[in-house]
Amino acid sequence: MLETVLASIRWLGHDGFILTIGGKTVVFDPFGAAHTEKADIILISHEHFDHCSPDDAAKFTGPDTVIVTEPVSAAKLSGDVRTMKPGDTVTVAGVEISAVPAYNIGKPFHPKSNRWLGFVVAADNVAVYHAGDTDLIPEMAEIRCDIACVPVSGTYVMTWEEAVEAVKRIRPKVAIPMHYGGIVGTAADAESFRKALEGVCRVEIPRPA
Fold first, then answer.
1. How many CB atoms are located within 10 Å of the residue 144 CB?
2. What are the backbone angles phi and psi of residue 103, rounded to the nearest 5°?
3. Which site in 48, 61, 63, 108 is 20 to 30 Å from 156, CA atoms measured?
4. In CATH, which superfamily holds the domain spanning 2-199?
């Protein structure tokens, strides 16, 4: 099932992805997406405009879509919106969703006290980690997943070098770089990340949606 889930992953740009897991369509942090389709679940990591975009979320929202996020983002969104905090686990449409910490160390942009989110979604014996906007944090050593989507741009999040260390701690089967090519970061960051993990972890750069 890992290869099936991996083949379904498409990059919406920045931190946005769409994938199929457990037979359900899951969208992470849609922002400025040219491609849209109705999702069963939308996961939004935090309130910043390039992650919590009500207009973009609406493009993926159908009558039965469930949106899962943190409380500040929830107040901006419409529909069946549910909130989580780090450490919570819920099951939506047969997909297990665990909220995990995502925050900065030594930067002001994503304070730990805000309790913003990364997510681990799991179904059919496959788990996908979407790190959200985060630095390299101690809690990553506790993440268990098959596929890890991690930011690589630096500035607001960890650098690609720190993302390499994160992958070494998490030990997924596949790593996917994100948070580049738009507001900050370039494809060169993703390529440096990939090269640094040769012989350590498989790295995939998904096709654009």
1. 12
2. -160, 170
3. 61
4. Ribonuclease Z/Hydroxyacylglutathione hydrolase-like (3.60.15.10)
Evaluate the CA torsion angle 99, 92, 170, 49 in order and state its sign: negative
From 157, 170, 184, 176, select the one nearest 28 (Cα to Cα): 176
Residue 209: pLDDT band (50, 70, 90) is confident
pTM score: 0.96
Count CB atoms within 10 A of the CB of residue 4. Answer: 11
User: Would you say how long the chain is, in residues?
Assistant: 209
Q: How far is CA 172 from CA 66, 69, 90, 176, in A?
A: 27, 24, 22, 10
- pLDDT digits over 108-151, tens only? 999 999 999 999 999 999 999 999 999 999 999 999 999 999 99
